[in-house]
Write a structure and sequence with these properties.
The chain has 249 residues and is mainly beta. The chain is built from two helices and 13 strands; from the N terminus they run E-E-H-E-E-E-E-E-E-E-E-E-E-E-H. The longest helix is centred in the C-terminal third of the chain and has 13 residues, at 219-231.
Length: 249
C-alpha cells in the first residue's frame, strides 16, 4: 500500500508589536501589502516526480515598501497508520468506534486522506482530516508547536454515528466562522443501481469485496459493502432496493 501523508508546507508565525513610549507611541506598524512565493519549477527528473516539492521562500512586502523573507520547507506532520497519542491515524472504524477489518483480518487503514482544516478551539488547535473512503471517516488530530515545529499530539475519529455515517468525504475548508465545512463526493450511491427494474441495476455479491456477482469491481457495490460494515447491517436486501434495517441508498 502506498504511504499517504498529511503535511503543512510551512509553519510561519509572524508577529508585530509596537513599543509604547513617549517617542514612539504615534509610530504605526506597517501593514502587509503582498505575500509572494518563489516559483516551483516543473519536475524534470524521476526523483523530483517522486517527492513533494514546495516553494522554498516566502517574501512579505509591507506598506512602507520594506520586505522580509522566510525560508519554507516541506515537513511531514503525520502519515496514515501512525500511532499518535491514544489513536491511529486513518484507522477505519464502525459506528461503535471499533476497527473495521479487511478480508484477511488486518485493520483497514485509509490510503485516501483528503480535505484538511486547521481549527482553533479555546487554547488548542486541531487538524480535521477527511478520509475519502467507503464508509467515510473524519479524523480529529490535536496539534501544537514545539521547538518551532508543528507536532501531532493525539488523534481520534470523529463520531458520525448520530447521522448514520458518511461516505467519500472529499473536499473541505475552514469557514469564516472558524468551523470545518466538508462535503461528500457521492457519485455512485444512486437508487438507479438499486432498482431491479432499472437498466443500470447492480447485482452486488454483498460479501464485503465491493464486487458484483460476476466478480467485477463496482463502485455502488463497494459503497453498500462499506456501509454494511460501518452500520453492522446484515439485512440489506438487494431484492428490495438494497434497503436494510438501517441502510438505504
Amino acid at each position: 500500500m502506498r504511504k499517504q501523508y498529511l503535511s503543512l508546507v510551512a509553519i510561519l508565525a509572524i508577529s508585530f508589536s509596537g513599543c509604547s513610549d513617549s517617542k514612539s507611541s504615534l509610530t504605526q506598524t506597517p501593514n502587509i501589502n503582498k505575500l509572494s512565493f518563489s516559483p516551483v519549477e516543473l519536475s524534470t527528473t524521476d526523483e523530483q516526480k517522486k517527492v513533494m516539492r514546495v516553494s522554498d521562500k516566502l517574501t512579505v512586502t509591507y506598506s512602507d515598501n520594506s520586505t522580509k523573507e522566510y525560508s519554507l520547507s516541506y515537513k511531514v506532520l503525520a502519515k496514515m497508520g501512525d500511532k499518535i497519542g491514544s489513536g491511529t491515524m486513518g484507522l477505519m472504524t464502525d459506528k461503535n468506534g471499533d476497527a473495521i477489518l479487511k478480508a484477511d483480518g488486518s485493520e483497514d487503514i485509509s490510503d485516501g486522506p483528503d480535505g484538511n482544516s486547521l481549527i482553533h478551539v479555546g487554547d488548542k488547535d486541531y487538524l480535521i482530516t477527511h478520509m475519502e473512503e467507503r464508509p467515510g471517516e473524519l479524523y480529529h488530530t490535536e496539534v501544537k508547536v514545539e521547538n518551532d515545529t508543528l507536532k501531532a499530539v493525539d488523534t481520534k475519529p470523529v463520531d458520525l454515528s448520530a447521522m448514520g455515517g458518511t461516505i467519500i468525504n472529499c473536499a473541505s475548508t475552514k469557514t469564516a466562522y472558524g468551523s470545518h465545512l466538508g462535503g461528500e463526493e457521492d457519485y455512485s450511491l444512486n437508487t438507479r443501481y438499486a432498482d431491479k427494474n432499472s437498466p443500470f441495476y447492480a447485482d452486488c455479491a454483498l460479501d464485503g469485496s465491493g464486487k458484483d456477482v460476476s466478480g467485477e469491481s463496482n463502485y455502488f457495490c463497494s459503497y453498500v459493502d462499506g456501509m454494511k460494515k460501518y452500520l453492522g447491517d446484515n439485512n440489506i436486501d438487494k431484492n428490495n432496493g438494497y434497503n436494510g434495517d438501517s441502510f438505504s441508498p
